[in-house]
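Let's do one together. I've listed all components of the complex below, 608 residues spread over two lines.
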Amino acid sequence: MATRAITSLTIEEARQVAFDAAMEARISELLARYPTQRAALLPVLWLCQDRFGWISPGVIAAVAERLGESPAYIQGVVTFYTMFATQPPAKYVLQACETLSCAVCGGTELIEHIERRLGIKPGEKTADGVFQLVGVQCLGACGGAPVVQINDDYYEKVDPTSLDALLDELAGRA
Amino acid sequence: MESVLLRARGVADSRSLDTYLAAGGYEGLKKALGMSADAVTKEVLDSELRGRGGAGFPTGRKWTFVPKDHPGPRYLICNADESEPGTFKDRELIEHDPHMVLEGIAIASYAIRAYIYIRGEFVRWAQLLEEAIAEARKRGCLGRDVMGSGYDVDIWVHRGAGAYICGEETALIESIEGKRGFPRLKPPFPAVVGVFGKPTVVNNVETLACVPHILTRGARWFASIGRPRNTGPKLFCVSGHVAAPGVVELPLGVTFREIIYEHCGGILGGRKLKAFFPGGSSAPIMTASEVDVRADFDACAEAGTMLGSGGVIVLDETVDMVEAAANLAHFYAHESCGQCTPCREGSDWCKDILDRMVAGHARAGDPETLLRICRFASGGMTICPLGDAFALPISSMVKKFHEDFERRIAASTPLPQKKLPVMPWAGPRPGFGE
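Okay, and this is what the predicted structure of the assembly comes out as:
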């Protein structure tokens, strides 16, 4: 399984964004799925996050313009959901599950191991911008506890050894 | 019991349409298309299928609530938000047999538009569904003029973005409409005023996966599995301290003892069972002495808990209930949408108290305070059931494992005395002369 690295705009680059023709086409396609423009908001935000790496104020302004909403409305929706990044993310975001089934199956120790290994606390990025650790609530894969999601991929029954090997591999690619 | 919902597990290339068709796939839809909508609903009613998402409401009855003469569009939403801690069955169905889910949606919705709301974290599984939909569309099992019937079935995948509350059906509807996931007051129920203001049925993935089987093999066959009023196969998600965690398919009404000891290898490391959640972390906890309760909707209700989503979280003798309760309090405090005070504040207060107890500073009245907070957050004090969802398990843990809480109080050290902060308005005010 090859976990794809996130490429994201810098804060400078993300101040003002524009949708290219391909994105415009995709947005039109999404709009056709719903009877209201507003309903396309989550899919359009996902499209933007895939493309730009995160939802910057500039992205919010562009989405607001395109969907005919106010930037404040978009901001309200973006911040309600935990998965929209409002800061540039690292190349690999480790979402480690903290909830009960994982916690009793070594999840707590795994998070401590990640903290020690990367020298960061949950919510922080490594100085080189390669890894970021986020403690998250139940990922819905409790049978494979402890679970870590890295970008789009789930890794189940992870232990410190297998995680170290994985991080080595990802760091080598970064 | 033969595998029904999990029959594709271990089958090569199980996701492909060809494999599904070879196993008799889309026969149920074909049959449904030759029947009236009322007859399809009647078949599902007769099967006594009850919703697998958590509430256990009879599916056929839910369908009948949609006004028949409603002009304009109606919607079906397949709930794949699957966020209840301890629940991981829908992902399994999507991974191994996405067409079973799509066929269920098509039967339930034929001639109306359907969305699948899938949790944001399930990126790969959303892709699997998109691929399966594209494949079924290309071969005429979905899309325009399905199987030459003149009906169109459109299914769109809509990804959430990280919010437990969006598994609640009205919050899910708000989320599809492009809003924050704030649950709506009911009534009106979604069947009358749902997504985009139109009649809407919201069914769980597993519920819909049962529908093709009911159509092809008949309501009577389905009702013969399990027990009266608790019919059909059920997916149980077993996690925590068991030797072989995972999803198992068993008839409703087996005992939790069978599930844990016969189908999941018993307790990890040969240790002793202490407690288990029968249906996700929002169900009141059960003690080891309740392990012979039957895993069905009615038996669980009789035992003072609920079958919920069928997420069985097993905890062995090494678990301290104060720590487990603190863990769950973190979950609910994080996931409360914040609309209703009893839930928003109550879950947060529980978290603070339990964290303090875990840190070694328990106070004599803490268990009673927790119970009081829980009482004020449950029993219809909030717009949606999230108030109950944190209050019932936490109060059940306090009541059933009182000794764990008492032990914390006995071993407690007082909180270090902090100097009171200087009130900002008590000191000199910069900018006001002087």
